[in-house]
Amino acid sequence: MPGKLQDYVARIEDLAREQGLRYHPIDFELVPPSFMMEVAVYGLPVRMPHWSFGVRWIYQMVQHKMGHSRIFEVVFPGNPNRAYLVNSNSLEENCLVTAHVLGHADFSHNNALFVRSQREAGDHIVEQAAAHAQRIDAAIEAHGLRRVEAVLDAALALEQHIDVQYPVSRPDYPPPKKQAEETAPKEPFQQRFLDLPGEGQAVPAPALPQEARIPPHPEADLLWFIARYGPALEDWERDIFLAVREESFYFLPVFNCQIMNEGWASYWHARLLREADFLPDELYVNAMKTHSDVVRPYAGDSQIALAINPYHLGFNLWERIIRDHGLEHARRAMMEEDDFGFIRNYLTADIARELDLFVYEARWDGEVRVTESNLHQLHEAILAPKYNFGAPRVLVDDLRADGTLVLRHDHATDGRGLDPQRAQRVLEYVHRVWRRPVVLYTIDAHGEEECLRA
Amino acid sequence: MSLSDTLAGEHGNRWYDLFSRGTRDWLRHNEKIREAVQQALPDLIARSDVLSRPDNRTVQVPVRFMEHYRFRLLTPQQQQGAGQGKAEPGDVLRPGRGQIGGSGGAGGNDDGGVSFVMEFRVDDILDWLWEELQLPNLKPRDAASLDDEDYVREGWDRKGARSRLARRRTLKEAVKRRAVQGRAALPIVNEDLRFRQLVRRQQPSTNAVVFFLLDVSSSMDEQCRRLAKTFFFWVLQGIRRQFARVETVFIAHTVSAWEFHEEEFFQVRGEGGTQSSTAFQKALEVAAERYDPSRYNSYLFYASDGDNFMEDRHRARALLEELATRMNFLGYAEVSSRHHQRLNTEVGVLFRRLAELGAPCGSYAISSEADIWPAIRAFFTEQADEVES
């Protein structure tokens, strides 16, 4: 049976290349379902230990036992890509999954965000994450579980708070300019301008050299800031923060392109299997049954869903884009967009109507009511949970002379304040590694400024 | 491309079969829960209905999954989302909870509300509690008077009763002798025989008896009984911790008193008024009949809402004073939902008088779960003081 699958895999890959899919080689591996479940929970095959993963894992186990969730494949972009297939799935399912994986590999090889992240975080994320895990194990050995756990509590709680505008290996803020300005050679024009009578003395030198404010601008990358500027962190603690940050750089494009990426892979598994005339009819029919399970919008017998299945939405959008604009156009969109652009540019009113998409409002007492909405509101309802890596915008505002870390929540952008209990707990996590006061400004339910301290 | 069903041939062991990271982290989570529960223990046990399964030496405590906190926005009054399906604007897809006939059972959407039950061994809990609250261990009030004579084995002799023959010792002697005598030796001769010796030794008594007296008159409502039950339970556990053998006597009373088995004791429900003296009388009778004060450490706990017939006052006081001479300690737990007259009740005054006489006793007002732990702590610390003074 593996022999047969191996044969099909090779032929499906040939077909994919003929269709213009371009990707790094893929290492396929058949693994038991228990392993699959762990990969789904940890997001990576080998990842640092933390009790919070244990909670997610038990949820997943319960879901799995109740038959609510099935994991078909996981693929990690890189060179080579690493794809895991479940060894208990049928040949039909695994043929489908293979074609699906090729779609993902093509996507991650060409999409701009993925390309950038692989250039930044490296294209061996699986190995890098395993190395992080190993370093953290060594830290536990050296400093004890409790201390390492305290650092991971803080670092993983801030997992989403990175800034991918800057590179992974980001330099410190430039030093204060006071000396540099005086000694640096002036531009020729500037020099001549200063030489004009009366101009040289016009700029009075500041009486006291001004201390450069740190950070010079509000800083979104909390993990980096704490690792670089934490006044009392030990080196191994900084290392853990940077390890978590590096993994976040890998996870961000996965998160930001989920609808496109799953849609693209679903489109290609359907198309490749349809064109794979070497597959027996029966296998094709069975594989297509699985396909329709994966891309169907509703769970169970229900005819209404309060969440949109990204496989379903992405698949339908790509089908229409390719039908209406051709494959070349679609490939370009695949390379250039993320979910934000994809939804705004390609989810038209017609498609929304065709797919019966709607906006609803859930009240505090549990009532869920469908609301009147326009296309823009629909876009926002789909995209709202995806902004800023799904996290509130919390920025470093100031590092005071006494070492106090001042955080400020950008409530104007987020539209409301932070949940104070949770925020307080996060501050306590941070305080344990920052070891100086930590302050956070946000607003309460009435819009009044609220200051939390730890 | 390599497609391998098993990696055993290629890369050695399938490393992921060797352990489960999910299990590892899940166990660590549970460990943290245990620690957290341990810290909140005094609070938790006061709340939980610990006596529901008296034979089982475990307590079940419902706990929630621990949350790894992150920054999150306040939950707004209204939250928007995108859905899919045949629905028109204005359709209500899910009724609010405020509506009549709403789906009460179909809930479970509150996130973070998942809880599971953890079982703790009572012995572990006691160890934690004693450590956490730094409670002293109980001591026999007066060790000298509590001596208990017993025979203990000590040494060997060549003569003795057949029943005390030490076989192993005898055989060892035979082996030694044969080693000296060589081949012709007999297997066992009379000189080899060794017998265990017994001597009389005085031993401190490790027996204890605990009398639980409960007022079951109509004024004792469900809440009062629950408080009494919880208080009794933890006191008993604490005493059990100290003595090898603990016997219990359960006496319930209204205007007369009866002895009960533990199982029935808390279910007993009486009618009418209260005459505490009947219970004290009963306790005295039982103690005289079955528990010799020289062989038993005796404790008595009385739980009542404090009401007692005025006419009973003198009789009750006399009996209490007599009890005080026999007991290591008398404890009075006033369980009442009324806060205003803490220990200023008829029975409360009785015990206060007793304390003024210098008898070993203590009174505890318990009107809510929060009072239980301080009461238990007070009992054990007072006990230690009594012993030292």
3D architecture notes:
The complex is a heterodimer of chains A (454) and B (389). With 454 residues, chain A is α/β, with parallel strands linked by helices. Among the domains of chain A are: 147 residues, no CATH class; 91 residues, no CATH class. Chain A is 55% helix and 11% strand. The longest helix of chain A is centred in the middle third of the chain and has 22 residues. Chain A is globular. Chain A starts with a helix and ends with a strand. The model of chain A has no long low-confidence stretch (mean pLDDT 89). With 389 residues, chain B is of the alpha/beta class. Chain B has three domains: 67 residues; 59 residues, no CATH class; 183 residues, Rossmann fold (3-Layer(aba) Sandwich). Chain B is built from twelve helices and twelve strands. A six-stranded mixed beta sheet of chain B has the order 9-8-7-10-11-12, sandwiched between helices. Chain B is flat, with a radius of gyration of 32 Å. The N terminus of chain B is likely disordered. Classes of the chains: A alpha/beta (454), B alpha/beta (389). Chains A and B meet through helix 1, strand 1, helix 2, helix 3 and helix 7 of A and helix 3, strand 2 and strand 3 of B.
What keywords describe this structure?
A: 454 residues; alpha/beta; four-stranded mixed sheet; 10 strands; 11% strand; globular; B: 389 residues; Rossmann fold; two-stranded antiparallel sheet; disordered N terminus
Strand content of chain B: 15-25%
CATH architecture grouping of the largest domain in chain B = 3-Layer(aba) Sandwich
| Overall average residue pLDDT of chain A | 89
Q: Considering DSSP H and I runs of 4 or more, what fraction of the residues of chain A is helical?
A: 40-55%
Uncertain runs of chain A are none
Biggest β-sheet of chain A, characterized? 4 strands, mixed
Structural class of chain A: alpha/beta
Low-confidence stretches of chain B are 1-13, 99-113
Shape descriptor of chain B? flat
Distance between the termini of chain A: 59 Å
Strand neighbour order, sheet with most strands of chain B: 9-8-7-10-11-12
Please work out how many helical segments of chain A DSSP would assign.
Answer: 20
Sheet with the most strands: spatial strand order of chain A: 7-8-9-10
State the helical fraction of chain B: 25-40%
Counting structural domains of chain B, the number is 3
